[in-house]
């Protein structure tokens, strides 16, 4: 199921179905409805046709205006989904790009990523988009896609919270998060030294870039731990910060769990 959930595309990384995991009471999360990915600015025409065929009703683009201007997403001519964006910056820079500032070693890169994950659940201009994402999920109007630049940090947190709301166990949430390292072709891109063409990364070695471009369990574990520490548990965070109370969690489960 791990590889089966990844949609192999030419120019869009990390495109995958995050359904299929066991949710509340052992009921599986439905497949074909919940998608996640990186940006679509480098999508090929073949990619666009493949994405269009999924029947996506809503695209939630977690990037801010500067990121969208830098890499506008391509869409198929027949794409009929509605694209939702936020008018202000949601990160300033993608988290991994922000973390790269002044970093020289892999240890520094990991420390920078962990620091950013300490606050990922509470970013002022990200939480409105997370609330919108859940509102759209509750509408249940068809398949949805959530993405940012790399589809791993902001998107990773959004997906982790959606999976938690559906009762997916912590270990499966982390496993899906870690799948980014395969789905984004991380090792292939590093082996090709693709980062050497980017000034921000040109002076780094492969291990340092790996810590920034990939994901590690410590990143998401830190975000979960800090959130639970502030709110007592994730259900309280969902209710107090994202507006998803017990009744809405039950509605989400009715929509997205089998049986």
Automatic annotation (TrEMBL):
PROSITE patterns linked to this entry: TYR_PHOSPHATASE_1, TYR_PHOSPHATASE_2
Alphabetical list of InterPro entries matching this protein: Prot-tyrosine_phosphatase-like (IPR029021), Tyr/Ser_Pase_IphP-type (IPR026893), Tyr_Pase_AS (IPR016130), Tyr_Pase_dom (IPR000387)
Source species, domain of life: Bacteria
Gene3D superfamilies for the chain: Protein tyrosine phosphatase superfamily
Pfam families cross-referenced by the UniProt entry: Y_phosphatase3
GO molecular function: phosphoprotein phosphatase activity
Domain (Tyrosine specific protein phosphatases) ranges: 124-161
Family in the record: Belongs to the protein-tyrosine phosphatase family.
Matching PANTHER family: TYROSINE SPECIFIC PROTEIN PHOSPHATASES DOMAIN-CONTAINING PROTEIN, TYROSINE-PROTEIN PHOSPHATASE
Protein name (Swiss-Prot/TrEMBL): Tyrosine-protein phosphatase
Lineage, top ranks: Bacteria, Pseudomonadati, Pseudomonadota, Alphaproteobacteria, Sphingomonadales
């Amino acid at each position: 199921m791990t590889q089966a959930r990844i949609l192999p595309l030419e120019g869009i990384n990390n495109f995958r179905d995050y359904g299929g995991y066991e949710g509340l009471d052992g009921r599986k999360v439905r497949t074909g409805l919940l998608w996640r990915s990186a940006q679509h600015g480098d999508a090929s025409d073949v990619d666009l046709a493949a994405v269009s065929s999924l029947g996506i009703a809503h695209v939630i683009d977690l990037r801010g205006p500067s990121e969208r201007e830098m890499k506008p997403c391509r869409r198929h001519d027949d794409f009929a989904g509605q694209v939702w964006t936020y008018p202000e910056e949601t990160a300033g820079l993608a988290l991994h790009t922000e973390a790269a500032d002044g970093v020289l070693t892999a240890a520094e890169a990991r420390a920078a990523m962990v620091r950013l994950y300490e606050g990922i659940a509470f970013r002022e201009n990200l939480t409105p988009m997370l609330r919108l994402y859940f509102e759209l999920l509750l509408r249940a109007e068809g398949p949805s896609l959530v993405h940012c630049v790399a589809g791993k940090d902001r998107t990773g947190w959004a997906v982790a919270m959606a999976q938690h709301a559906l009762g997916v166990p912590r270990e499966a949430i982390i496993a899906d998060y870690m799948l980014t390292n395969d789905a984004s072709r991380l090792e292939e891109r590093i082996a090709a030294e693709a980062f050497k063409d980017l000034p921000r990364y040109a002076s780094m070695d492969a291990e340092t870039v790996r810590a920034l471009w990939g994901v590690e369990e410590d990143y998401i574990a830190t975000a979960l731990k800090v959130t639970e520490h502030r709110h007592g548990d994730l259900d309280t965070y969902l209710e107090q910060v994202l507006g998803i109370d017990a009744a809405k969690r039950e509605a989400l489960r009715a929509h997205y769990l089998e049986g």
